[in-house]
Amino acid sequence: MLEAREVCKTFRRGGGRKSFLALDNVSLQIDRGETLGLMGPSGCGKSTLARILLRLIPSDGGGVFYKGENITLLKGKALLPFRGEVQLISQRPESFFNPVIKLKDSVLEPLKIFRLYEKVSAHEMLYRVLEQVKLNDSLLERYPHQVSGGEIQRLSICRALMLQPRVLVLDEATSMLDVSVQAQILHILKDLQKTRQLSYLFISHDREVVGWMSDRVVEMRQGRI
Predict the structure, then answer these.
(1) Any idea what the CATH number is for the domain that residue 75 is in?
(2) How many domains is the chain partitioned into structurally?
(3) Is residue 104 part of a domain?
(4) Which of 123, 156, 180, 187 has the smallest set of CB atoms within 10 Å of its CB?
């Protein structure tokens, strides 16, 4: 479904005088309907790999493949289908929400960006997804600062699901939450995977959580798997 093949990434430091090898010939594959756990300590390259898989930053070598197609060099409109089908859920969901816009408008925003917005069908989809993430629709009239950390994370999941993605990249998606809220969201993600046949790349430093969520687990250290 989503695959990295021999991906390399080097960052420059100190005005370009020093280099840091973040990823060293990394390969992994996420199959349809599977949760692949990616774990490792902070700074090992997990989030860098996620950003490359999402085509947010370029790699220095290797390639990213989606449904068998090499998307490494795709740009602009050619990349739009991929952008809709592969979505990020991050550890800082508030970054996806404009603080001066009501939550409802932020959740519906992806449909407008991708020119998929039709008022009636969009609202029907929104309320259906809200039910799946176990949120009350009264939250939609609030602003980001008026909801809890667990609620804003569930709203970010809701926002991603509006585009009916096939793959979610979950980068430390529950690491900032307390244990009880974390458990609720993990169960929601499990349920969503069953009902929507989603594939997950589940990134975390928490071995217990990764083990519970994942069908397979790979470990990264110093930019290698």
Answers:
(1) 3.40.50.300
(2) 1
(3) no
(4) 180
The answer to whether position 132 is within a domain reads no
Q: Domain containing 77: what range?
A: 2-95+163-219
Instruction: Confirm whether 181 is domain-assigned.
Output: yes
The whole-model pTM stands at: 0.89
Three-state SS string over the chain comes to CEEEEEEEEEEEECCCCEEEEEEEEEEEEECCCCEEEEECCCCCCHHHHHHHHCCCCCCCEEEEEECCEECCCCCHHHHHHHHHHEEEEECCHHHHCCCCCCHHHHHHHHHHHCCCCCHHHHHHHHHHHHHHCCCCHHHHHCCHHHCCHHHHHHHHHHHHHCCCCCEEEEECCCCCCCHHHHHHHHHHHHHHHHHHCCEEEEEECCHHHHHHHCCEEEECECCEC
pLDDT at residue 120 above 60? no
For the chain, give the percent of residues with pLDDT over 90: 67
